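We both want to read discrete structure tokens more fluently, so let's practise on a single case. Would you write everything just below, so we can both look at the same thing?
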Amino acid sequence: MRAAVSKRNPGRGAPRLCLAASGGGHLRQLLDLESVWGKRPHLIVTEDSALGRSLAEKHRVAFVAHYALGQARLGHPLRMLVGAARNLAQSARIVLSERPGIVLTTGAGAVFFTVLFARMLGARVVHIESFARFDRPSAFGRIAARFAHARIVQAAPLLDAWPDAKLFDPLRVLDEAPPTKQALTFATVGATLPFPRLFEAVRAGRAAGALPGKLIVQVGEGAPTAGFDDDVECVETIAFARVQTILRDAELVIAHGGTGSLVTALRAGCRVVAIPRRFGLGEHYDDHQEEITSVFARRGLIEVARDAQDLSAAVTRSRARQPVIATTDHSALAAHLETLVAGWTR
């Protein structure tokens, strides 16, 4: 377990909150709820990613091994079992050592054992179904919701699965003038998995002249960074603080279909083109990214390119209209959680 202790001292006697989420968008959703957990003793349990490591500089963070049921679906059952075994041991050690009293979780599989063990030791569990799920529950949600004390969904169709859940739809389109941008394109595969197809699509778009100006490409840990001209910055990972600086200036963002990457770019007033990972091509554990990008496109927030051949046309469509500024407003959800946590603390 690798951890860093926050400089904050929220006081003694209150039960420690455990924020349990895998890397990327799942974790960013919990960070948006800092008004609830930031003033209380807390521990963040997540995967060892660039975002997690940056959080460890200010907060108490424990890392667990990555594993997911989808690994078996993609033909890697041994890899899943090895990761699950490591994760189980790490999660047990963390929970026994930290003894959290309340768990806030958005999933997914990497934090299942943490949530389960905390629940077995008497912790109160709040399951917040990920904002990445619009039409049907996640596999994590279907299991974790059974022993959660409170269930929260962020899309109305999910109430069919959990009628007793509370609904908080956080997506908001802002009526603001777009900020001044530079001739900068930022391509990102997110915090967890490499995405060679996006890399190749961006490289082809650059060669075809569809992506002029400065180009920064983030390819994921362990992915090759060669293949571009010397004037292109290509890196495996980028600290979240620098991502925010890049987005402040970037006119165009080409991203995978994760909600964290999409919402962060929209919040910065960037034009956004998404290339969703596809289960049929072995790029993700299911097709939830296609579900996400379809919903965002229907709302007029982004353009979607399903392959390299579509990218140039999607970029042209995106540049032909004004960028849309959108964000997620979690104030209502935070108020609800504050009531729950305060009641359980008393």
About this structure: Residues 1-12 have pLDDT under 50 and may be disordered. The chain has 13 helices and 15 strands. The radius of gyration is 20 Å. Residues 67 and 80 are 5 Å apart (CA to CA).
